[in-house]
Amino acid sequence: MTAFKLKHVDRFVDRHGHVRHYFRRNRGARILLPGEPGSVEFRAAYEAALAGGSAPATKPARRRGAPGTFDDLVQRFLESSNYSRLAPATRKSYRLTAEKLLREEDIGRRLVAQMRREHVSRMIGKRAAMPGAANHALRVLRILVRFAVELGWRQDDPTARLKLFAIGEHHSWTDEEIGAFEARWPIGTPQRTAFALLLYTGQRLDDVRTMAWAHLEAGGINVTQQKTRTRLWVPLHPDLAAVLAAAPRDHVTIITTGGQPYSPRSFGGWMAKAIGRAGLPNRCVSHGLRKAAARRLADAGCSAHQIQAVTGHKSLAEVERYTRAAEQRRLAQAAMDRLQGQKPNIDSQP
Fold it and tell me: Does 295 lie in the same domain as 246?
């Protein structure tokens, strides 16, 4: 783990091999600092001790599970700086998945050092019917095990080289499907406003639902992606500008329900109903509009880096797929155009 240096803090390793941190100033009483350095709990206790030299007002939370167990590991991870640095939505997702694994697999009381590769494979295999959930469970379990390696609880990673399940890709909306939605929901309806934000900014649902009028600046919209914390400025397409010009500005956020922003789940459900009422097939889902945005940029001849500047993808691999597909279509069309324009070679006929 990363070394740290805080004034008046001593570091000890107890008889169980666990690292403990104490605050002690001028040979005074030692004050136990709960949690991992950098965690919210640790910082609050340290600041309280630094200010008054006394123990924090609240007693440290009772540790769950015996030392070295998965119960103990999950609690330590949730108190760690590794966890506190994550985006709020990611923290919630990891916490819920970790707790679910402990509950469904009944591994909370088991020692982390005893987990083997076959145990992990069996746990993930049980979730094969829901590959998305299985992959997420494997990712979270891998994070927990690697955290245990950081703590010195084990030397190896039993999740290493276990492959994720293949998952079908979201359908990228066609231009005809986009037109069908726009025909059902004209400019001025909140459904059309949300649709235009998704399509013309290429952002995720969670980013669009929190977009505010104050984010509009210099002919574009500022975005801080919830998932990656990436900050973007996306220029307003004229079609999006026309939609926003017709939308009421009665509240802080652009899309509201009862004057308040939608929750992540309710916004997705609301958009799904709007798509269904437009008579579109089940393959048309909101996230497919992010893919449609990238596809349309690629079809317009944009480079992978240009598309990434709009969508905020961390990896170019996904974006490059769109540019390769668009280039293949352009080359194939050019080849067929040349074939159609070629005259027969009469001299070669018998």
Answer: yes
Q: Specify the pLDDT at position 15.
A: 59
What pLDDT was estimated at residue 202?
A: 94
Phi and psi angles of residue 154, each rounded to the nearest 5 degrees, phi first: -155, 165
Residue 280's CB is within 10 A of a number of other CB atoms, namely 18
CB 31 within 8 A of CB 54: yes
Do residue 123 and residue 214 come from a single domain?
no
DSSP structure string for 64-112: PS-TTBHHHHHHHHHTSHHHHTS-HHHHHHHHHHHHHHHHHHT-TTSBG
Q: Give the full edge-to-edge strand order of the sheet including 216-217.
A: 216-217, 220-224, 231-235
- Judgement on whether residues 140 and 277 belong to the same structural domain of the protein: no
Residue 126 within any structural domain of the chain: yes
**264 or 36, which is more confident:** 264
Q: How confident is the model at residue 56 (pLDDT cuts 50, 70, 90)?
A: very low
Do residue 189 and residue 324 come from a single domain? Answer: yes
pLDDT digits (tens, 9 = 90+) for 122-136: 999 888 888 888 899
φ, ψ of residue 138 to 5 degrees: the values are: -65, -40
Q: Which domain holds residue 35?
A: 9-52
Mean pLDDT estimate for the chain = 86
Q: Which two tokens stand for residue 250?
A: 């009665």
Same domain, 137 and 227: no
**CATH code of the domain in which 241 resides:** 1.10.443.10
- Are residue 182 and residue 147 in the same domain, yes or no? no
Q: Which ranges constitute the DSSP H helices of the chain?
A: 40-52, 70-78, 81-84, 88-105, 117-125, 131-151, 175-184, 190-201, 205-208, 238-245, 264-277, 287-299, 304-311, 316-341
198-213: average pLDDT: 94
- Residue where the block lists tokens 């666990």: 18
Domain count, the chain: 3
- Exposure of 26 by Cβ count < 10 A (0-12 exposed, 13-18 middle, 19+ buried)? exposed
pTM here is 0.62
- Residue 228 belongs to some domain of the structure: yes
Tell whether 70 is covered by a domain: no
How confident is the model at residue 90, as a pLDDT? 86
Q: Is the pLDDT of residue 226 over 50?
A: yes
